[in-house]
Amino acid sequence: MTEQTNVTKTELGTITLEPAPQGPGQLTRGRRPPWLRVKAPDSPKFRELRGLFRGKHLHTVCEEALCPNIGECWGRGTATFLLMGDTCTRSCGFCKIKTGRPGPLDPDEPRRVAESVRAMGLQHAVLTSVNRDEQADGGAWVFAESIYWIRKLVPGCTVEVLIPDFKGDWAALQTVMDAQPEILNHNTETVPRLYRTVRPQAKYARSMELLRRAKAMDPSTLTKSGIMVGLGETWEEILQVMDDLRANDVDIMTIGQYLQPSRFHLPIVRYYTPDEFARLKEEGERRGFKWVESGPLVRSSYHADGQAHLALQARQFQPVPN
Known about the structure:
Layout: E1 6-10, E2 13-17, E3 26-27, H1 44-55, E4 59-60, H2 61-64, H3 70-75, E5 80-83, E6 87-88, E7 98-99, H4 109-120, E8 124-129, H5 140-153, E9 158-162, H6 170-178, E10 183-185, H7 195-198, H8 204-217, E11 222-229, H9 235-247, E12 252-257, E13 270-271, H10 274-286, E14 291-294, H11 304-316
Helix pairs in contact: 4-5, 5-6, 6-8
């Protein structure tokens, strides 16, 4: 089979993604396949949470990133809080969150987040953020303060943080790890070959280093990372990312289909089938991940509440240092 090259012009310039993956699966032609169609979110719980977030002047990545699972997750009372505003200092080719010059950080935001966690009755809270590269520590203190307030207002609630790379500032990472989140997530997003177009302001090696250091700083914290497929990576490149993550002792991996949020973003090279996602799950489990969430609609925080049980076990059985 001849390898395909996908060349397209976008707002980011002319992009060449090659080679397109081979084997079974659907190239992007016409409408989305049926396994990627979801109902518009509308339930009493969804409306209740939307009102709660508006009232607290908070943002969620569910809304800002156009997550396809927003109806399912909000319908069962779970959401991912987006810290530090809704404007990112980076311009990743896949992300819907707006890029620009963000406003000042809000020192009261961590308390309001914790109040929302309490109001929602959450047993597991997920916190992420935009990139704040203009901040000396990338806003690491906001994560730490948010964890502090959740512990104070909602005792027993586990916390997962999905953090940026802090530009390799390991003191900033230590600030987050000192707050002892149960799960530390940092997404790889794609394979190394595609970083220049997908994550132009990030570095694959730096992300791997962050995950390695996080585990070393607190071995009882579960580490987690995820990638999107459908951007032009090969099957072998996906497996190599899995191997790299395991080499850095990452415990949990998520794999989902990239969906182009607008015509100005990177194109979808192909759709992976549910069977292929099942095969990727098997590959991950074979490599020793404690949990692999793999499916067309999987996103970073999908079924995160289930993964929290692993975190509690990790903390419970972690040997006490001599």
